[in-house]
Fold this protein.
Amino acid sequence: MKRVSVVIVTYNSEQDIFDCINSIRKYADIPLEDIELVVVDNGSLKVDRMFDDLYELWGEDIVLLKNTHNGGYGQGNNIGIRHSSASVILIMNPDVRLASPFFAKPLNAFESDPKLCMYGMKQMLTEKRESRSSFMCTLMMNGYLRTLLEAVCNRLDYYIPRWQYFSGSCFFVRRDMFEDVGLFDESVFMYGEEDDIHWRLMHRWGAYFRYDKNMRYLHLTSERQPDFDYEMNIIQAALKHHAKNGYPLEKSLHHFRQIYRCRYWRERFLMTTKGDNSRMKVLQRVLDKLKEMY
């Protein structure tokens, strides 16, 4: 019986997936025989070669699945979860690298506390540079309060289970609880799944989430450039989740305008010291679009 199933969805991820899996081998503090590795490919061009190399790297115990179509991040993860066998699932992006001993502590927590739903860890951008996305406040709250609370909690590394969700790039979740609330929402292709999963688990099982600031992983997004389409995809996905969960559209748009005003003025202040206004321009476009939608 496997203690944990690691589910990774790939899409033309050949440059990331092997380093990702090597980091699992390096930082596994339980026997590799206790880890089930499930890789779901969403239509990569070189999937056969990638799967052959993954088989050689991990061994015959790996589960390799070709998706029939690219149904998005959530749909791919759901396929992996349904083909896995362990009672605890680790969802992991291919551009994640483990950076500390990683399995024994959360698995012992799940085994000792039957109420525990999710277990999150500290996200890093580099080995020395911390991310501000280990956890974030729900978007279903006042945008100014969210901005303030997120800034304070990230600075103090203090997690509030009821109001904050973990980054979707790397988290542990109890399988039966996740299945009970429907797994990932497959109607959304990508983005915004974390807030929705947190909301559904909390309202079904309670705010039994645990954050471990001493367990670290790298998420290789430090070079991500400002992008209007990316920001709008985040907003559209969130609006869809909010509507499903009964949160009013007008209220959602109002909160988003508050959030993006704060981000705009932060970037405007930083521009005086860095001289780069590219992010500010993107945020202004988002604000203009939100004004049209509101």
Notes: Residues 249-274 form the longest helix (26 residues).
